[in-house]
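Sequence in, structure out. Go.
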Amino acid sequence: MANKSLASRKQTVITIFVVVGFIYLLRLFYLQVIDDSYTLSANNNVLRYVTQYPARGLIYDRNGKLLVYNEAVYDLMVLPRQVKDIDTLEFCRILDITPEGFRQRLRKAKDYSRYKPSLFEKQLSKETYGYLEEKMYRFPGFFVQPRTLRKYPTPLGAHLLGYVGEVNQAMIDKNPYYKSGDYVGISGIEKTYEEELRGIKGIKIKMVDVHNREVGSFQDGLHDTIAEMGKDLYLSIDATLQEYGERLMQGKMGSIVAIEPSTGEILAFLSSPSYNPNLLVGRVRGKNFGLLLQDPVKPLLNRALMGQYPPGSTFKMVNDLVGLQEGVLTTSTHYSCQGPGSTPIRCTHNHQSPLDVYTAIQQSCNPFHWQVYRSILSNPRYKGTRENYEIWRDHVMDMGFGHKLGSDTDAELAGNIPSAESFDAIYGKGRWTSMTVRSLSIGQGEILTTPLQLANYGALLANRGYYIVPHVVKQIGEKAVDEKKFKKVISDISPSHYEIIVEGMRQVATLGTARWYQIKDITMCGKTGTAENPHGKDHSLFMAFAPADNPVIAIAVVVENAGFGSTWALPIASLMIEKYINGEVSRTQIEEDMINKRLY
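Output:
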């Protein structure tokens, strides 16, 4: 009985050993024949993993004109542990670097990893690459990785398009997609639509012999992945109008933003001074960026989004709309004006008096609009100045001021419509009145707006009470941008009140400050503004839309330190409107004056 039990145990032990051995044999077969991941790891010394960088998507204007394309360049990569016995002087001569530069680059690569490839010299030209390729076998540990850089066939829209640069460590830490040496959109559309433009990286595994020569693809490319090009973008920008605007603004500081009111699509978007976007591409980018950064006229500043200005008289119709909505202003309301002798708000010139709202807009009468503003803050329907002010501010914010609009442009600032709390902090709660903040009645004081907000304000008036959030991308790849992404914002002011304001703006163009720049067969509705500037000469502003009925363009022009709105911003805006609607400009003398005159 004992022998039988012993035999049974022996059989069990043998079975266990056989099963375990069989499992090990299966595992070995899987590792050596089926799964080649360990083979790949073991063969890192003879296999080269070359990242396939996708070309970024192309960028076109609304009419299909190419604005941005790609040009091939080559990055020189290094695997430090494979660098042995090379002719350093010859290598440095080919790359046009010093021996000390060679040592610094190699030391940096070793600090990163002796076993992983890293960037040694970026963006070699086609000529340098062609010469180096013939001698590559003499430099073990080095290989070339192709990629593309942006190219701009027509140097326009620099602030709108933005630029591409190398990722930093913070970007790598935030997004594991990026590795050292990758490029990313840094500003503008390149940044906003980075995920759509960048594409998907691929990889090729190459076999390399002892002489640093590629001898073929590993397993006939079985483990390679193909890079997928980024999606093309079709912008709402009209390149012809954009280029024309940039010509008009040469030698001037400021901005032009034009919008199609019915869609919210941005037709022109420029900041001046600008720069050639090709300057921030390739190996010269760092040097040129430093020079642009030091330029006293600040060409890198995107004034269309980041310039914040008092709106001046362009803001007067905002107060009129609030007064009409709150019932403290009607078309029958008249206020007197004593011209330059007016107090506490002075008028800039003599004109008829008293005035109704239409004539007050046409003549840009300061005292009239001060009386409207005072009546809003003194409205007996509410508890007092502070509550009336908060109601006024809510209406103004509802028209697109004092907050970011949500555009797909990069780095938009909010402007400022001061809160009641901010005045409490300055003057004390209950210790300020309409007289204290009277400068707000004429778009001065603490009010700040951006050119984008002013153009959007023009679209709001053109649409008689609503705007579509401004945006610059119409189509991504084959797919149109979802209309729901850029919502329709309806003002809480009655559309009938907007009709009153539009008529006043029509009279500005036909009888008022803009009458000298009427466009044949086009009725323009607009308003000039001269914004006080504590740092120098006043800013010149103009906001308009055209035609008066069924408008196709709303525009805002700001020319810094240029004086009256009617002197600079108005003629520039009227030329832009004529160019867009008619395709050409008939008022050639005005055009020549605006293009040739410089303010700095």
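Check: Residues 40-44 have pLDDT under 50 and may be disordered. The chain is about 35% helix and 20% strand.
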